[in-house]
Design brief:
With 419 residues, this protein is an alpha+beta fold. 38% of the residues lie in helices and 19% in strands. The strands form 4 sheets. Strands 3, 5, 6, 7, 8 and 9 form a 6-stranded mixed sheet that branches. The longest helix has 32 residues.
């Protein structure tokens, strides 16, 4: 601040001197330019001897003093200015450690201030996709509307050797089969059991209607509390399955107790949840079914199990979260996800959904009024490495054990239990 003021003062002084000098010189020029007044001729002296030759006037002409003063002041100002510049340049070349530290601090503060926050872009999603995805809700109040679900595959054609399936036509969505294989391979490693059997998976609307009618005939009731209405069964979505036990050609009920409790305790690691429990019957409207599992994917299964919420409760909870304020979920393996809800734009055919452009994400409908966005942040909580290593070892053990088991032929398909 001082250097700037000093430099400015010198320049102002120079300007003032130039103005003053210019003013003085202009007055002199004006005087010189005025015509001289004519004087009456003097009478000549009578005696030529007395006539004297005039000596030049030693006084300086008027105005020359101001001009010289201006030149002197300008010279002094220029010398001072040159000296000031030399002094400033000399000191600017000297190392100043304190200034460097200050610059580094300023740089750090600038980086912190400009650290990017969550950045999103809009993607257009058809409103028809509200009825598709791992998190769609199908219950007595919300019908399943997709007539031909995609990626339905035969479980028998894709299964491992560590469990059974009731028939070659028993099927699920591909992602549900992949997760099922991983879960039952790990179950075999943990317990040595290979007697789990999938007795029911995807059902068509016609198959669900047949089961519903059979239950009404058996009970004599007008409605069923054991079989969902056609169009309102999770089995029609391809995300749900029913377990039983199969050993030595004999099938028995599965209740998830004893060593089989491992399934309930660990199914969320593979994206599955025990869908209908006794304590949630008032919310789901379905009696407890220890054999019925639903695939919802990760990290949703982990959150639902840890917080003891059913799918209805979970989807309601997610409506409190947005892209600006997402729900942060740490999965069982330490991976951190962000989950939020986007309401469908009912005034249009599609909805703009905010998603991060630089991270992995999925979008699932909730089957009613909006979308659930799940973002993999790429961040991992401490301790993940140990969990990942243990999981990898279990998978390798399962793969080695499965290689020693001979291929099996699917047992005869039995009638689906009325779930």
């Amino acid at each position: 601040m001082f250097e700037i003021s000093l430099g400015g003062t010198i320049w102002n002084l120079c300007d003032a001197v130039l103005i003053f000098g210019g003013f003085s010189m202009s007055r002199e020029e004006q005087k010189q330019s005025k015509p001289a007044k004519k004087k009456a001729p003097k009478k000549q002296a009578a005696s030529p001897q007395k006539q004297m030759t005039k000596r030049p006037n030693p006084r300086r002409p008027r105005g020359t003093g101001g001009k010289m003063a201006a030149e002197i002041v300008i010279s002094v100002a220029l010398v001072a200015f040159v000296g000031y510049q030399g002094f400033h340049m000399y000191h600017s070349l000297q190392p100043i450690s304190q200034g460097t530290e200050g610059m580094e601090l300023t740089s750090d503060m600038s980086e912190a201030a400009t650290e990017p926050q969550n950045v999103y872009e809009n993607v257009s999603v058809s409103n028809e996709d509200v009825h598709a995805g791992d998190l769609i809700l199908v219950n007595a109040n919300t019908a399943y509307v997709e007539e031909n679900p995609s990626e339905i595959v035969s479980i028998y054609d894709h299964k491992t050797d560590n469990y059974h399936v009731s028939g070659t036509e028993t099927s699920l969505r591909q992602q549900a089969v992949d997760a099922l294989n991983q879960m039952l391979d790990a179950f075999y490693v943990a317990t040595g059991h290979q007697d789990m059997i999938v007795i029911s998976g995807y059902r068509t609307n016609a198959q669900q209607q047949e089961l519903y009618d059979e239950d009404l005939q058996a009970t004599g009731e007008q409605t069923s509390t054991r079989v969902a209405l056609p169009g309102h069964s999770e089995h029609e979505s391809g995300y749900s399955l029913d377990f039983s036990l199969y050993e030595d050609g004999v099938q028995s009920d599965y209740d998830g107790t004893g060593e089989y409790a491992w399934i309930n305790e660990n199914c969320s690691h593979y994206g599955y949840v025990l869908r209908y429990t006794e304590d949630k019957q008032d919310t789901t409207g379905i009696q407890a079914e220890p054999w019925h599992y639903r695939y919802v994917g990760q990290p949703h299964a982990a959150y639902m199990q840890e917080n003891n919420v059913c799918l209805e409760e979970y989807l309601t909870l997610l409506k409190n979260y947005s892209a600006d304020v997402p729900l942060s979920i740490t999965n069982w393996d330490g991976e951190i996800y962000q989950v939020y809800y986007v309401a469908a734009d009912t005034a249009a055919d599609s909805t703009y959904v905010m998603v991060p452009p630089d991270k992995k994400y999925t979008i699932s409908g909730n089957n009613s009024d909006g979308f659930i966005v799940t973002v993999d942040t790429g961040e991992i909580q401490s301790g993940e490495a140990a969990a990942s290593e243990a999981s990898g070892a279990a998978d390798n053990h399962a793969a080695d054990s499965a290689a020693d088991v001979s291929g099996e032929t699917a047992p005869d398909a039995e009638a689906d239990a009325a779930q």
